[in-house]
Structure of tRNA(Ile)-lysidine synthase:
Amino acid sequence: MGRPGLVTGPPPAVAAVRVAVRRALPDDGLVWVACSGGADSLALAGALAFVGQRAGHRIGLVTVDHQLQEGSGSRAAALAAWAASRFDVVRVETVTVRPGAGPEDAARTARYGALSRVADETGATAVLLGHTRDDQAETVLLALARGSGPRGISGMPARRGVYVRPLLDLPRSVVRAGCAGLDLEPWEDPHNTDARFARSRVRELVDTLGEKVVANLANTAALVAADCAELDAQADRFPLGTSLAVAELAALGPALRSRVLRRWALSLGVPGGALTKGHLDALDALVTAWRGQGPTQLPGGVPVARRAGRIVAPPVGE
């Protein structure tokens, strides 16, 4: 029992989550929270319900039913019922996960497709995602294991377009304590502990490494992201056209040149998701290792060749 007249605040973990959400909110507009019913996203939803209402924001909760597990529809409906009295608008988005590079990637693609569709349809100013500092560390380790470049190692951004990750600086332990402090009952996705999935195996490694290593990995992601942003900004200042001068490209450092070539390829209509390091290396070879080789074929049926001191697309005279 507290002393008479003593005003006590929420538990520290609850306060930490609420503060993170308050700092991330846009000035106005509809704000969605993407909630799976797991501890992290449920803590985020609970914090938005509290902070958003007091700030006068219009808030919504959206949950995506991937239909990958028995009873997923019932769980989505139960979550929507919980949210009905706490949010201005609630949506359940049912998606079909199509086979792709792997089940995790396919589910992620379907999920973000649904979230983007909801945001576009409603003119939302933000969609809050429940990724924590531990998730960031897992992303960095996965990128390292896959041999990703700086873009992969830079991890998830706190903000990108409509997507906002308020909890990215908070440890998972704090966020889950916040969920418990709000007396919320999360659903634990069995895929999170299923060794068939790379993310779950990395999660076990992260738990073993401990909080200090998790913080260091997250800091590494932030440092690499800052470097990438600066190089991207420099690349954006390089003028593009249907052709590029080889001499101007050769004068650039490799890190900056690769970004210019990538940006140029995208401007030609090459699908970003299909553009690999191998494609960029082939483009770079037209600049730095010219031996009279023929055109380089980029995804989307875009051929690029070197002609008269320039790289051009489509090749002149062919």
Notes: Strands lie at 30-34, 58-65, 89-94, 126-128, 159-160, 163-164, 243-245, 296-298, 302-307, 310-312.
